[in-house]
Amino acid sequence: MLLQWFNFICRLGIPRRSTSFHNKDYAYVVNLTSYIRGVWNGKNLTLDNSLQPMKATQPGQTSLLAPMIAGNWVFDFTNGYLPANVPISALAVSQANSSKMARINPIPLAPGQQIYIPNLYEALIYELLYHVL
User: Fold this and answer.
1) pLDDT over 90 percentage in the chain
2) How many CB atoms lie within 10 A of CB 3?
3) What pLDDT sits at residue 109?
4) 76-97: pLDDT as tens digits
5) Is residue 70 a contact partner of residue 81, using CB atoms and an 8 Å limit?
6) CA torsion 25→93→53→4, rounded to 10°?
7) Parent domain of 69
8) What span, in angstroms and rounded, lies between the C-alpha atoms of 87 and 68?
9) How far apart are CA 62 and CA 77, in angstroms?
10) Is residue 7 part of a domain?
11) How confident is the model over 47-76, as pLDDT tens digits?
12) Of the residues 7, 78, 81, 85, which has the fewest C-beta atoms closer than 10 A?
């Protein structure tokens, strides 16, 4: 049953997460560069303009991977699915105040090196091959 339709002006990532925070129900999705949050009131899902669009990638980084929620924070990684010539960033964004964002780049790259996080299907295939071979 389709409860509501949004016409987004950007491509949204399929992975999405939902959580309750400060007595509100939120749904998080990501597009290529930004976090997007919706608020569910039990009947309607509306965009939460206090968060979007919240650009998270830096120049040269490719798409966000999938939001992960832990406590007051929403975590994600850059360079999901598409190779990039710049390091992956691990991000943490406060649910209470989206201007609070922490970033680390845990894997330095050598000149000319590329990096990305494979999609779930690639990861599952690698895992299956590892156990089969």
Assistant:
1) 17
2) 8
3) 92
4) 888 887 889 999 999 999 988 8
5) no
6) -20
7) 12-132
8) 20
9) 10
10) no
11) 888 876 578 899 999 888 888 888 899 888
12) 7
Find tokens 């798409």 and name the residue: 63
Which helix H or strand E contains 74, and what residues bound it? strand 73-77
Residue 129 is which amino acid?
A: L
- Examine residue 32 and state whether it is found in any structural domain, yes or no: yes
pTM: 0.72
Q: What's the one-letter identity of residue 124?
A: L
Q: How far apart are CA 46 and CA 37, in angstroms?
A: 9
Paired tokens of 93: 């964004």
Q: Is 1 a member of any domain?
A: no
Is the residue at 91 inside a domain?
yes
Residue that has been written with the tokens 């509100």 in this structure: 24
Residue found under tokens 């509306």: 46
